[in-house]
Amino acid sequence: MAPAPELKLVPTPGQTIGPFYGYALPYDKGHELIHPSNPNAVRLHGVITDGQGTPIPDSMLEIWQADHQGRVPTQDGSLLRDGYTFTGWGRVAVDNVGRYTFTTVNPGATEAGKAPFIMLTVFARGLLNRLFTRIYLPEDTEALANDPLLSALPEERRKTLIATREQDGSLRFDIRLQGEDETVFLTYPRES
């Protein structure tokens, strides 16, 4: 009897980011949730780095968020940007030195007294599964102090989830995958 042939398992898109993500996942204006000329437009930008602080050039980020009034959008059209419809979702591949930029709006609070935030997902080399985190706006310190997620974290870890407002009004949020000042990442229970 002949021995059974060895099976070679190949990673699927759910197990690794590349090399296939560059072919089909980025799309035209994926980083523009709102047109840059809109008076409510704000730039969300930063750098993604590994545990040694080295930029990660082959990663991709997605964001989801409420609009500036705290409404969660339900419109279609995220993949075909028309420059007018805010769908609350965007995707961007980082550049060759790990930088990313989204044009979006400051999200409003989805409920009175709640801290506004943007959901962020990271896809990158070496990650078997994507990572989830939040980007909180820095201004409403009372809402930040009362946020259940932030309150559950040690004080020194909270700052990794709060963006910095720059002089030009943009939001800076750097992502560190490991090491000192590692960004807090979230897990969600799997559905049965």
Biggest beta sheet summary: 5 strands, mixed
Q: Radius of gyration in whole Å, from Cα?
A: 18 Å
Helix/strand structural class: mainly beta
Number of domains: 1
Number of helices: 4
- What sort of overall outline do the alpha carbons produce when their principal axes are compared? globular
CATH architecture: Sandwich
Strand elements, count: 9
Provide the low-confidence segments as ranges: none
State the distance separating the first and last CA atoms: 42 Å
Helix and strand run: HEEEEEEHHHEEE
Organism: Glutamicibacter creatinolyticus
Pfam families: Dioxygenase_C (PF00775)
Protein name: Protocatechuate 3,4-dioxygenase
GO molecular function, one term: protocatechuate 3,4-dioxygenase activity
Give a quick summary of the entry.
The protein has 192 residues and is mainly beta.
Question: What features would you describe in this structure?
Answer:
- It is a single chain.
- Helix content is 9%, strand content 24%.
- By secondary structure, the chain is mostly beta strands.
- It has one domain: Protocatechuate 3,4-Dioxygenase, subunit A.
- The strands form 2 sheets. Strands 1, 4, 7, 8 and 9 form a 5-stranded mixed sheet that branches. Strands 3-2-5-6 form a 4-stranded antiparallel sheet, with no helix packed on it.
- Strand 7 (164-165) and strand 8 form a beta hairpin.
- The N and C termini lie far apart (42 Å).
- The mean pLDDT is 88.
- InterPro entries: Intradiol_dOase_C, Intradiol_dOase_core, Intradiol_RC_Dioxygenase, Protocat_dOase_a.
What's the topology here?
Elements: H1 21-24, E1 41-49, E2 60-65, E3 89-93, E4 99-105, E5 117-123, E6 131-136, H2 141-146, H3 148-151, H4 155-158, E7 164-165, E8 171-172, E9 175-176
Parallel strand pairs: 1-8, 1-9
Antiparallel strand pairs: 1-4, 2-3, 2-5, 5-6, 7-8
